[in-house]
Specification:
Order of helices and strands: EEEHEEHHEHHEHEE
Oligomer: single chain
Shape: globular
Helix content: 25-40%
Radius of gyration: 20 Å
Structural class: alpha/beta
Number of helices: 6
Largest sheet: 5 strands, mixed
Distance between the termini: 29 Å
Number of strands: 9
Length: about 220
């Protein structure tokens, strides 16, 4: 899970790949964005969550303003919609909240330039998002070679989780661990329902599967509890 913060005077979640008219020098200007970039260069992340607050919402691609204005839809939009619907159902509702609404970020909220979500999903294969960065800033020069990728590096399904209308929700709405895995559990609140979302993303990436029979031959379980 990745949290968008402000550091070096730059919003970390909006300091990634330039797109839709941004100048190439305006991305990867902060230490935080560069650190995230290096992690993505070294590891293939299949899925993740970006937590924010201000509304309650689960969002999927596109989040790029340029993609939205040009009428593009994400090639994985059906899978994204199904996945976020499942996350919303498992998160549940509590007190005066409802189950998380879901939708395309740029349509339901707004599109951004250089956003983390679109970058993580498509900056290595989308022609519109392939822009090399040549950043210089108070934290030093960052080589353009570090924002050159092959077409399989950045393909992450990064779901936006807008957790709460309040930036600092009342303590009584945070919840506890009573019935943690039950969307209708007694202790449901902001923290339990977002923990369930995180766990379901893990299950989505590594689903449980067992092969019972091959060519008419029954197989014994190879995992013993």
């Amino acid at each position: 899970a990745l949290l968008a913060e402000v550091a070096d005077g730059v919003a970390q979640g909006e300091d990634h790949r330039a797109a839709g008219g941004d100048q190439a020098g305006s991305c990867m200007t902060s230490v935080g964005a560069r650190a995230i970039n290096e992690l993505f260069r070294r590891h293939l992340f299949q899925a993740g969550l970006a937590f924010h607050s201000g509304i309650e919402f689960l969002g999927y691609e596109w989040s790029s303003r340029g993609m939205h204005l040009n009428g593009y839809v994400a090639p994985d939009r059906v899978a994204f919609a199904q996945a976020t619907n499942g996350l919303s159902r498992y998160a549940g509702a509590f007190a005066n909240t409802t189950a998380y609404p879901q939708g395309q970020i740029s349509k339901e909220i707004y599109g951004v330039m250089g956003g983390l979500n679109a970058w993580a999903y498509a900056a290595s294969w989308s022609r519109q998002l392939k822009v090399r960065c040549y950043p210089t800033s108070t934290v030093g020069v960052y080589p353009a070679s570090r924002t050159t990728y092959n077409n399989s590096v950045l393909r992450t399904s990064l779901t936006l989780v807008e957790t709460s209308k309040e930036k600092t929700p009342p303590a009584a709405t945070l919840g506890n661990d009573a019935g943690l895995f039950d969307p209708e559990g007694q202790g449901n609140g902001h923290i339990p329902r977002n923990l369930r979302i995180a766990l379901q993303v893990v299950d989505t990436v590594e689903p449980y599967a067992r092969i019972f029979r091959v060519n008419g031959r029954d197989l014994a379980p190879d995992i013993v509890p």
